[in-house]
Protein: C-type lectin domain-containing protein
Amino acid sequence: MFPSCLWIVTVVGVFSLVNAVTFVKIGNRYYYIEPRVQKNWFEAFQACRLINADLVDFESFAEWRLVDQYLWDNNIDNEYWTSGTDLGKQGFHVWFSTGKPIVPNIWSPGEPNNNGGNEHCDEMGYDRKISNSHRLNDKNCYYKLLFICKAR
Ligand SMILES: [Ca+2]
Structure:
């Protein structure tokens, strides 16, 4: 009796967690844009998996540009973790959620620069006020930021 009740409570709890977040459609994909809770890159990756999504990747410049514009249009421009990283092989940034190389022309000028030798995770939104776009920058993975998840 008790174990089955516990199972139901657990299922309801997980269901509530999934339902607690709202995905938005941008282009033809669905994204969750965390509005409040800042996490390090690893925590952000985990949080996205818990809602059956992945820390965001951009398959093309066009996809990045659509999300970039959405952040401006909805007045939620900020710095967000993406799944970009070169933790696997320094200097080679990939989307960790898909394994594919990061598309060209979405880096902030002079980035990625591995500043101080400890920047291996990629945020978007760095220097956004200067460049008027949420371009990528490599940053210390333990820095706490908002993050964007992308539904599978
Ligand atoms: Ca950097």
Observations:
- The radius of gyration is 17 Å.
- The mean pLDDT is 91.
- The first strand starts at residue 24 and ends at 26.
